[in-house]
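Lay summary

Proteins are chains of building blocks that fold into shapes. Our project writes down both the chain and a compact code for its shape. Here are two examples, one after the other.
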Amino acid sequence: MATQRTVRRLQLAWELAQESRPWPQRAGEFLAVWRMPLSVTVVALALLRQIVAGPRPRSLADYWDPAVVIVVILLAAGLVLRSWAAGVVSKNRTLTDVGPYSLCRHPLYLGSFLIAAGLCLLAADVLTALLVFGPMTVIYAACVWREERLLSHCYRDAWREYAARVPCLIPWRLPDRLVFRWSYAVWRGNEEYRAVGLALSVLLAFGGWRLLSG
């Protein structure tokens, strides 16, 4: 499965390189297609730099530190939001507008930013935060642009009505009717365990670093 996804990404990258569209559009398509590998690389490099040359991260065991409380809230909110959205959305099948998709049009990306914010606050290093949020902002801006363009093309009037009713990324009000539904099969099919694994890997890396550095 992973090999098939990599081959498909390489095929898409080659097709994009051959197209005569303006380079910003091709670059946006490339970033959107490779968003997960790029995100993992960005986080790994920022984490490696901090381990080599940065300060020690905060400890999740320090319950009385207000920053740690905020970290836990951000991580929990991000993971819950992403898992909820991944268990609801039917990619490439229908326009999903229930559950977290009635709060904002891109709850998966909002969840990613909440998780990234929590991890950066846990890192307690401004440079790490810049190294993570800078590339992530570019990558996910390209993802939002690409997805909205495709969805507007596929669903036309339904998409325009949905986009006029629901904010893009930041929920600013509760919808009139918040329907809850979730499917583990859909969650697994959308491979959300990769995002959970990435977040847990960073937490374990920080914990191991603190333990070994005494």
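And here is the second example, written the same way.
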Amino acid sequence: MTTVKSWHCAYETHYHIVFPVKYRKCLLNNEVVKQIQEISREIELRYEIEIEKLGCDINHIHLLCNFHPKYAIGKVVRVFKSITARKLFEKFPELRKGLWGGEFWSDGYYVGTVREKGNWKVVEKYVANQGKTMEYNQLRILE
């Protein structure tokens, strides 16, 4: 992690962003996560967003990312959610079955800033270990 220099500023911005799948559905299996990782690389190149770590639990996603301060956090979240949802539905049309209204991600999100010299390594390790220790069974009311 170093200072990024652009034409009119130098910055070190590190954000921890978390958002769940709609209705907290347990849809982030290995195939879906691999696809999200591929889509993330495309987003990085197109929007100048550096995704430093990406961790997925079975029903939510963690991003550690760095981007130019000219971008609002809400815009970055909106871009990530919309592109990943559209491409996931194209690749896995069966995901729509349990999601009413055609949305993959929940409307809300959490964002926190992470200090480089403070707790960065702790947060980085936490995000990297998402989904590796637990498995959830989705509660199904009607089958």
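What can we say about the second shape? The beta strands are 4-5, 10-11, 15-20, 49-56, 60-67, 110-113.
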